[in-house]
Design brief:
The chain has helices spanning 21-42, 48-79. It has 80 residues and is mainly α.
């Protein structure tokens, strides 16, 4: 679980993907949650608060996976 697709490429001599898959998925969820929050608030529903919280959570997840991938790239470059 949590495969970003970059680990198995090291054996093939290829560079890892520029953006990990999980970070991309989290970013998409964040954007969709922001859009849903805007629609909810425009319609006068307080359910938009839940969407805002989901957007914050997915944003943090995207940053985490991006930083983790960057740290892995830097550590693998240092060992080469």
């Amino acid at each position: 679980m949590g495969d970003t697709g970059g680990e198995h490429l090291q054996y093939l001599g290829q560079e890892p993907t520029p953006m990990p898959r999980l970070a991309l998925y989290a970013l998409v969820v964040c954007l969709l949650a922001v859009a849903a929050a805007v629609v909810s608030f425009v319609q006068g529903s307080w359910l938009g608060v839940v969407w805002v919280l989901l957007a914050g959570l997915s944003s943090n997840m995207a940053w985490y996976y991006l930083r983790r991938a960057k740290a892995e790239r830097e550590s693998s470059a240092a060992t080469d």
